[in-house]
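Quick one, tokens below:
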């Protein structure tokens, strides 16, 4: 088990998402790294040229985002963290008018680390819950009869 990999991913969330330190992205994400399943269509983002605009859109929409790492484990070159996040929808950068609403979601991130950099990552988080909380999506109530 590599505690260094858990610490690297904890640092990623603290500095990139909580402190909005864009320089940490360049430091910890490999130039040709891949983030699976995170673009607008649920596809991959490859390299810093695609990751930075994604980061700027999310940060612009939720500038007060606070992520807490709940658990973290590693094995070999892979590390996984379970996280929770709270934020307010304050910006229009997702193409959705800012609602000002509070959002609380959870997720998990699995990353592969090589030479101290994230070379591949898989994120799973409650996108539907976020859209519901900002008022974009409403689920129909089941009919009771």
């Amino acid at each position: 088990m590599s505690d260094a990999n858990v610490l690297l991913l904890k640092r990623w969330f603290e500095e990139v998402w909580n402190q909005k330190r864009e320089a940490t992205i360049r430091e910890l994400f490999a130039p040709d790294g891949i983030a699976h399943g995170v673009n607008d269509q649920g596809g991959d983002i490859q390299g810093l040229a695609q990751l930075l605009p994604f980061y700027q859109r999310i940060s612009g929409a939720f500038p007060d985002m606070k992520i807490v790492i709940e658990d973290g484990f590693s094995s070999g070159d892979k590390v996984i963290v379970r996280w929770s996040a709270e934020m307010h929808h304050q910006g229009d950068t997702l193409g959705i008018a800012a609602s000002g609403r509070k959002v609380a979601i959870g997720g998990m991130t699995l990353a592969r680390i090589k030479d101290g950099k994230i070379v591949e990552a898989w994120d799973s988080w409650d996108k539907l819950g976020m859209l519901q909380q900002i008022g974009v999506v409403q689920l129909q109530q089941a009919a009771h009869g």
